[in-house]
Amino acid sequence: MKIIVDAMGGDNAPEAPVQGALSAVKEFGLEVMLVGRGDELLKELQKNGYPEPPKGVEIVHAEQVVTMEDNPATAFKEKKSSSLTIGLNLVRDGLGDAYVSAGSTGALLSAATLLTKRIKGIRRAALAPVVPTGNGGAVLIDCGATAECTAEYLLQFAYMGSYYAERVMGRPQPRVGLLNIGTEPTKGTNLQRETWVLLKKASDEERINFVGNVEAREAVEGAVDVIVCDGYAGNIFLKTLEGAGIFLMQEIKKAFFKNLTTKIGAALLQDGLRDIKKLVDAGEVGGTALIGISRPVIKAHGSSDAYAMKNAIRQAASFAKSGIIEDITENIGYMKLNAEDD
User: Fold this and answer.
1) Contact by Cβ (8 Å): 297, 99
2) Helical H runs in the chain?
3) Residues 296-324: tens digit of each pLDDT
């Protein structure tokens, strides 16, 4: 399996993408195509002891780089020789099985939608990170790709998130919850109430396992495997969760370093604290799946280091092997309110 990596995207490029790719090739037996400025990538390989690309690593030259200052909606058109544009064209044309980038989220979303295209019938692609919860993690869909949604968008998100949870996370009959301010069907805005009706119908037809509305607290505790929401609410949920995790880790560290006794306690609990840190570390997952696009695309965090990029490449391979895109394509008729619409 070959994964195409935007080697110029992210705060730590090209170092992190190159090192992550080398690790992924060695640990997972994958092939990686690094897209970026060839001379810089060769220098980075040389720093890591490779005078030329090793077996499993290929370099595709791309002169331009899409930066955070570029217009995300038009960057891929204005910079046709960028690692973003060339990489997505390669995966679109079947020269790789999946694509990974730690670059601009907006630019990636626009380019993937217009170059790689959405699956026919999907109204909006969704960013679907796996967030830490009490049941080992849940798919949050959407976390920011589409701030204003319709009930049909959320219905499609529920299907797509359910397929991801089952195929990639190994959750049989994943529990789907609609993020809301209460569990009653009458709670929320018109959007949530209309969506509840659609999800209940899909559940009654045994197409998804909808368990009803879920409040943020219960979602974090592990009440569901898929958290469905519009991108506005999802982004707030995600950023709050990330901030709370950082805050709690800081407070735990303060508590354990108060005096000699607490330091001894910290030493005794070192393994457990390391596990907690991993739980809230986005680098462990690797990246966020962009679901609804016709080819597998993973958005890695902009600050990803080599370890996070390695995991993003692993995640991309899992996405490509999962069969999710085929699931969506085969069931698109159930995911549209008007079956005649494209």
Assistant:
1) yes
2) 15-28, 38-47, 75-78, 83-92, 105-111, 151-167, 190-204, 216-221, 231-256, 260-268, 270-279, 282-285, 306-322, 324-331
3) 999 999 999 999 999 999 999 999 999 99
Find the radius of gyration of the CA atoms of the chain. 21
Q: How many C-beta neighbours within 10 Å does residue 151 have?
A: 18
Topology of domain 123-287, CATH: Isopropylmalate Dehydrogenase (3.40.718)
* Beta-carbon count within 10 A of 290 CB: 25
- Going by C-beta distance under 8 Å and a sequence separation of 6 or more, which residues neighbour residue 4? 32, 33, 35, 87, 90, 91, 95, 96, 98, 99, 100
pLDDT digits (tens, 9 = 90+) for 226-262: 999 999 999 999 999 988 888 887 887 887 777 877 7
**Using CB atoms within 10 A of its CB, is residue 295 exposed (0-12), middle (13-18) or buried (19+)?**
buried
CA 256/CA 309 separation, integer angstroms: 31
Stated pTM of the model: 0.91
Reply yes or no on domain 1-122+292-324+335-342 having CATH 3.40.718.10: yes
